[in-house]
Specification:
CATH topology of one domain: Receptor-associated Protein
Mean pLDDT: 81
Structural class: mainly alpha
CATH class of one domain: Mainly Alpha
Helix content: over 70%
Number of strands: 3
Strand order of the largest sheet: 2-1-3
Length: 407
């Protein structure tokens, strides 16, 4: 059986579009005419299915990971295709071929098969919670219920592009500190592996009493050199164990709690959680979702299990008839600014606009905090590098000065 997309007119002159399966184009034409339709066009769906074993050139060079730009591309292209009159099923097939992520392409083809089997698009993407968050499911649900899926997908694309730009700024601010840390690590490795052994061999040829600083530095260097691969292997295993354990809910809960209590880093993580909550909350409200549903979805996207649990209690109380601002104030989760803005939103009936401003405010505050931390970190890192390298150089040259000094 082949899949066809058709455009027809009924007896009253109304145009309708649809899709159907038939053994051939002629068979479908006969069926449609038998139902009393005037056929305008019939087009066969020639989009191939994606197979993991496929070596088609279209999929060579695609990556398995899914990045935020892939989600931006998906939302924007789906909105464009649907608003142009292309059916949902064909749009899903087309974006599957256009995306640069092989994993997302496979998921979109699976969603296409689910939609072809009779599921709604919202239920189809809910079958892939590891790929699509509650934000996606909520947006699509509203779009399908209101019959305005292209519009809400465009709104989602705007939000995702904004998030991508915001994350790019944060990552750009962290580039220089990362380069400094790498430079220090490389410098220490070179000293330990190549320079220290040469000096130690040279000092052993002279009958001198080496200064205490030189003895300590050479001892530390020798210990690190002898156990270098042990420390390297231990670090790699620790990182692997950390990321595997982090997937466990009980471990993640402990880590999330500890991170929030850490100085500086905890503040940045908390600001990021507040910003993410406000951003997701306003985009869901703006799309037309109910307050309770939007609050639930925003809570699950906040990225911290401790805050998620507290917000779940707030959501439960709001569902039972409580005021959002009062429940947030009682929970004491967020800063007073969020509580007051929620109260203003309730009084004016402009909750989406209010939380859009809250999100913009915390984006600026988070960016400023990160930039200030980086600005303070840079000179500290330079001073640390100077102290380490200076101590090493002095410890190596002290015996040389001792040899050059006459008795």
């Amino acid at each position: 059986m082949k899949l066809f997309y058709y455009t027809v007119k009924d007896k009253k002159g109304h145009t309708a579009r649809g899709q159907g399966e038939a053994g051939s184009k002629k068979e479908l034409l006969s069926r449609l005419r038998g139902q009393g339709f005037f056929v305008i066009s019939v087009q066969e769906d020639k989009v191939e299915k994606i197979s993991p074993q496929k070596t088609n050139k279209k999929f060579q060079g695609k990556r398995n990971s899914i990045k935020i730009q892939d989600y931006c591309f998906l939302a924007r292209n789906l909105a464009t295709m649907l608003s142009s009159g292309i059916t949902l099923l064909r749009s899903l097939n087309l974006v599957a071929y256009q995306t640069e992520s092989l994993k997302l392409a496979k998921v979109m083809k699976q969603c296409s098969e689910s939609v072809r089997g009779g599921l709604s698009f919202e239920k189809a993407i809910r079958e892939h919670p590891a790929v699509f968050s509650d934000l996606w499911a909520g947006i699509v649900e509203v779009g399908e219920a209101s019959g305005n899926l292209p519009s809400v997908l465009n709104r989602l694309a705007d939000y995702l592009e904004m998030r991508m730009e915001f994350e790019r700024k944060i990552k750009s601010a962290l580039v220089y500190p990362i380069i400094l840390v790498c430079a220090v690590s490389v410098a220490l490795f070179v000293f330990l592996k190549f320079i220290f052994p040469q000096f130690e061999q040279m000092f052993s040829q002279f009958d001198i009493t080496m200064p205490a600083l030189t003895v300590y530095v050479l001892s530390i260097a020798g210990f690190l050199e002898r156990n270098f691969f042990f420390f390297l292997g231990g670090a790699v295993l620790a990182v692997i164990a950390f990321f595997r354990l982090k997937r466990r809910p009980d471990v993640k809960k402990i880590l999330d709690k500890l991170i929030l209590k850490m100085p500086l880093i905890g503040d940045i993580v908390f600001l990021g959680c507040v910003e993410r909550f406000a951003s997701v909350f306003y985009i869901l409200l703006e799309s037309g979702l109910a307050l309770v549903y939007s609050l639930n979805s925003a809570s699950s996207n906040i990225g911290n299990t401790v805050l998620e649990k507290q917000l779940a209690n707030v959501n439960r109380n709001v569902k039972e008839g409580g005021s959002l601002s009062e429940e947030l104030n009682r929970a004491g989760i967020f800063p007073i600014l969020v509580v007051e803005m929620a109260k203003i939103g309730e009084e004016t009936g402009s909750m989406p606009d209010v939380f859009k401003k809250v999100a913009a405010h915390y984006q600026k505050e988070l960016s400023t905090t990160v930039e200030r931390l980086v600005a303070a970190f840079e000179p500290l890192m330079i001073v640390f590098m100077g102290l380490v390298v200076g101590t090493i150089v002095i410890s190596l040259f002290l015996p040389i000065f001792q040899l050059a000094t006459p008795y």
